[in-house]
Write a structure and sequence with these properties.
Helix content is 39%, strand content 14%. With 337 residues, the chain is α/β, with parallel strands linked by helices. It is globular and about 55 Å long.
């Protein structure tokens, strides 16, 4: 059996980009104040605001799970719930973290094709009466790009956020792959118009060392947010090292440039694979129909890929994916067909 290659297992398996590492090294000099009060963190925050063309508070934390869970905890009380797609990361991959950080907040799971919440299902959930034996919804969580690599347009997001905001609900946007959505045409500057209260801008999957930006559009939620982060173990003393990679990735457009490359590699893979593609390829993920014996043959050939929530097999491309790697895995796919 060949040594396993994890090129397409996840965009988390890729190394950090040169721009992110160079920024870390560049800002590893001298002394700086702690806990996010330093000039490096301030500069990174300015660049995030510039990216979004928005006046917002920005904080940097170590993981997307922490960023999502803490954000949802800020939007809900313990006896309330968050509406999300049934396959959203907050529902399937965070080990109950939203409920943990939210002291019991619940998750209301909705269906929808290719990771996008179905509008009719959302309308039904929003119309559900408040009753004492069920956690009433207080927030809506959306993901762009979705877990299935599809991309909401600003209009599609607005069609979901508007009825939620009309009821006074908070809105959270999980942007673990927001750069890939932007590279696919999503307008980042539209987010501030959609009623989003808290946004997570993904760093790790975009090619940075572990770091995510929490963007707080509703400044009322920023009150004591640092205390919330500290209690959660997400207010690092050397905060500049969480912020610096964002400087490297944002100051000359590397974030979107690398995301566009990852998206292009996904399209290259989708064009070559002999297996049926289950979801539209709009960002950096390709999901194919593959039975279990065939997946085992793929693993035996040296390439690792995960079976995903809907039963398809997922191939994720990253900033570091090469055309040669795409062609190589596709050659293996043809050989095991």
């Amino acid at each position: 059996m060949s040594a396993a290659r994890y090129d397409f297992a996840s965009d988390n398996t890729a190394p950090a980009t040169p721009e992110a590492i160079e920024a870390l090294v560049a800002h590893n000099t001298g002394y700086a104040s702690g806990y996010g009060t330093d000039a490096v963190t301030a500069r990174a925050g300015d660049l995030v605001r510039e990216l979004l063309d928005a006046d917002a508070e920005v904080r940097f934390v170590a993981s997307g799970t922490a960023a999502n869970a803490i954000s949802l905890a800020a939007l809900c009380r313990p006896f309330e719930a968050v509406i999300a797609h049934e396959h959203a990361h907050v529902c399937t991959d965070e080990t109950g973290a939203p409920g943990f950080f939210g002291q019991g907040l619940g998750l209301t799971r909705l269906p929808g094709a290719s990771g996008k919440i179905d509008g009719a299902a959302l309308a039904e959930a929003l119309a559900a009466p408040d009753v004492s034996y069920r956690q009433p919804a207080a927030a809506l969580s959306l993901t762009n790009a979705t877990e299935y690599g599809t991309v909401y347009s600003a209009g599609q997001l607005g069609a979901l956020t508007a009825p939620a905001k009309a009821r006074g609900y908070g809105v959270h946007l999980d942007g673990a792959r927001l750069a890939n959505a932007a590279a696919a045409g999503f307008d980042l500057k539209a987010i501030k118009t959609l009623g989003v209260d808290i946004l997570v801008v993904g760093g790790t999957k975009a090619g940075m060392p572990p770091t995510e930006a929490v963007v707080i559009f509703d400044r009322a939620l920023a009150r004591r947010f640092d205390a919330r982060l500290k209690q959660a173990g997400q207010l690092p003393s050397k905060g500049r090292f969480y912020a610096a990679p964002f400087i490297g990735m944002l100051q000359d457009g590397a974030l979107l440039r690398h995301a566009a490359h990852a998206n292009a590699m996904a399209r290259r893979l989708a064009d070559q694979t002999p297996f049926a593609v289950r979801h539209p390829v709009e960002a950096n993920g390709v999901f194919v129909e593959m039975d279990e014996p065939t997946l085992k043959r793929l693993h035996a050939s040296g390439w690792f890929a995960y079976r995903f929530l809907d039963g398809s097999v997922r191939f994720m491309c990253s900033w570091a994916t090469t055309p040669e790697a795409v062609d190589g895995v596709c050659e293996s796919l043809r050989s095991i067909r």
